[in-house]
Amino acid sequence: MSARAGIVVTGTEVLTGRVADRNGPWVADRLLELGVELAHITICGDRAADIEAQLRFLAAEGVDLIVTTGGLGPTADDMTVETVARFCGRELVLDTELEATIAGILRSLMARYTGVDFDAVMAANRKQAMVPAGAQVIDPVGTAPGVVVPGSPVVMVLPGPPRELQAMWPSAVASDIVAQAIAGRTVYHQDTVRMFGLAESALAETLREAQRTVGDFSALEITTCLRRGEVEMVTRYEPHSAAVYAQLMALVRERHGSMVFSEDGSLVDDQVAALLAGRRIATAESCTAGMVAARLTDRPGSSAYVAGGIVAYANEAKTALLGVDAALIDAHGAVSQEVAEAMAAGALDRFGADTAVATTGIAGPGGGTADKPVGTVWFCVRLADGTTVSRSLRLPGDRSDIRERSTTVAMHLLRRTLRGEAGSA
Amino acid sequence: MSARAGIVVTGTEVLTGRVADRNGPWVADRLLELGVELAHITICGDRAADIEAQLRFLAAEGVDLIVTTGGLGPTADDMTVETVARFCGRELVLDTELEATIAGILRSLMARYTGVDFDAVMAANRKQAMVPAGAQVIDPVGTAPGVVVPGSPVVMVLPGPPRELQAMWPSAVASDIVAQAIAGRTVYHQDTVRMFGLAESALAETLREAQRTVGDFSALEITTCLRRGEVEMVTRYEPHSAAVYAQLMALVRERHGSMVFSEDGSLVDDQVAALLAGRRIATAESCTAGMVAARLTDRPGSSAYVAGGIVAYANEAKTALLGVDAALIDAHGAVSQEVAEAMAAGALDRFGADTAVATTGIAGPGGGTADKPVGTVWFCVRLADGTTVSRSLRLPGDRSDIRERSTTVAMHLLRRTLRGEAGSA
């Protein structure tokens, strides 16, 4: 059995949502790498009773390790160390060596300010040198030291600022106390598969079939989620169950082969970037209005293959900037295969590119008709050799969903066209 | 005493940090507006035992209301309703009316796919129509209904996708069951002030002064945070402390007047949209590569004033598409006041617009020099009457921070120029 852990995030600003917690996910990732199973993250404000309740809860759930973040500062609302000491039944004692370390740090910080009473500051910070008896001190990166308190569970107390917590993590994990707590851990494999064009319920159906037909299926811990229009399946398993995962994947490929675009954790963005190496792409966007260009240039080095793009929001811009015949727009409407193709051709031409992608659609909330309701979007990818692939979709959701989803669809159409697979899209 | 609540966020993808939780903070805000005190947020994976442990913990802590998010989908790892029913000691029963509602929704969704077995999908989704006996159903916005289960505590079960949860919240809160759970609450005022160009520490200094000079200052619960380059200050107070808040705001205006751009909760996006009414804007983007155009068109109705834009990522595109003289780029570099101004002039001209905004900068990680390090960005806003306002900044952070922050700076430069305030920027 694997070691289990819980994370206690303290801080009223986090609880009330004014500041997004970045420590929980970061520590979760580190624990996973160590093969420690994270069972719970709990968040509470700067109140001793609530912090202590969460510590008791996690201990009662039998976790081997609790990591706390936040509440180590010099002010009165910073009470994590004191609360953890009480919870662990240990006295707080002044660590004079630590006090000297903190004084040294403060002295050099103070040097930047004038008129500061160093003794007053030091008095306020003395509480940061009070540690639970028998705990191991983790040297501060800012001014707040961490502590690792032995016991069952072991409690690792770290500061709230992510930069400090992350820098102090390696020493905290290296301590003997933590090593003992997480001994006997199992290291898991984790594999990610991404699919596009698949309903989440169709994958659910496949997983139900796998449950019936794949032996030892329960050795796999599978989670699925819908992200940016893609279905993502993450599977965790112990190394000896690799064959079970292989059987599951054989079934997934058999049923959804053409929709599986990534089995190695890569994103469609990674794949499109690789396919664009040595090429030169231009965009022509109406409803996505720059989101496809922004996404293509999101990664470092994209200037090697992105020439640029035109946001042709108004019809006159489609004509003036992309050379789309106004008569074509009159005849078919701005949201049509003809206009999407003319936009892509215009982008190729104006930028001297060899690859172009175009989007034109109705993002809403207004502008829909019976024929072309809100969510109707035409996409076209055109290459310099004349290859032209067009698709239309009716996307669900609100304006922001439709624009976001359209951007993802454009990326997938690019991927399939550049791989020469678009015929099967 | 005010009603207390806890939030249970379920989902292995959230626990393990693959997806950031957006529901906890959102629900926390709504509870505070309702005068309900949030005590704990707990996060666990898709495991019935862990979900149930968190429900028991919150009940033992005496909360009046538990809100759960996530785990309402059709797949086997969606188990929140079942777990809540067991926790509340209620049978799951098929709600046939709800089943018909879900079937109707699915039928219209399926229309987009071909070769889907509707009966199989419906079977997979039948579990979504199973509700705890005596619970009130909250109609689905996606395909997953919510439920409100009476008892002590009351448990409100909502779906994970933020768009669905947010749309379903008003009906859930309006239910009699919830009303009884949160009776006797204190209603708070909440005011938001947004500042641009201010260091968070300068605001902290002002708040320390307010603590000394404003009577009954402790009646205000203030949180500050830095978001998208803007400092946001949110203050909650009981209605009888409105005068204390007014004193605080007098001090904030006195010290940071020109940086305060919003006291009514409006975003810079709202203000720019209002200022653009009756105008026609075009963008010319290099480092932001479409993000300014995407942000301007984010809101419904923006087609009334957005003509379009040009993403001139490559230098040749700046010349070919925006008419920037190649000699100007050679002389001053692509990241320069001269090129930013020529780009804005080009956008005005090519789109026949009366307002243009241009960005050109070094987003990194490569491309920086001693003179123009990574983060150097030039901005220009130009109006048809010849008004030309240019600014340069050195923005901190990584590629994505620099692009995001540049987009915000462009919005603020637009706002100030259109208000005729740019001289004081």
Structure description:
- The structure is a homodimer of 425-residue chains.
- The mean pLDDT of chain A is 91.
- In chain A, α5 packs across α6 (118-126).
- In chain A, β7 and β8 form a beta hairpin.
- A 6-stranded mixed beta sheet of chain A has the order 2-1-3-8-7-6, sandwiched between helices.
- Chain A has helices spanning 12-15, 23-33, 48-60, 80-88, 96-110, 118-126, 162-174, 176-181, 200-213, 242-256, 268-275, 291-296, 315-322, 326-332, 337-351, 399-418; strands spanning 4-10, 37-44, 65-69, 92-94, 130-132, 136-138, 146-149, 154-158, 189-196, 221-227, 230-237, 260-262, 281-285, 306-312, 355-361, 376-383, 388-394.
- Chain A is elongated and about 85 Å long.
- Helices cover 41% and strands 23% of the residues of chain A.
- Chain A is α/β, with parallel strands linked by helices and 425 residues long.
- Chain A has 3 domains: 4-182, 3-Layer(aba) Sandwich (Molybdenum Cofactor Biosythetic Enzyme, Chain A), CATH 3.40.980; 189-262, Alpha-Beta Plaits; 268-419, CinA-like (Maf protein, Alpha-Beta Complex).
- The longest helix of chain A has 20 residues, at 399-418.
- At the A-B interface, α1, α2, β2, α3 and α9 of A face α1, α2, β2, α3 and α6 of B.
- β2 (37-44) of chain A pairs antiparallel with β2 of chain B, so a sheet runs across the interface.
- Chains A, B: Belongs to the CinA family.
- Chains A, B: Residues 6-180 form the MoaB/Mog domain.
- Chains A, B: This is CinA-like protein.
- Chains A, B: It comes from Mycolicibacterium anyangense.
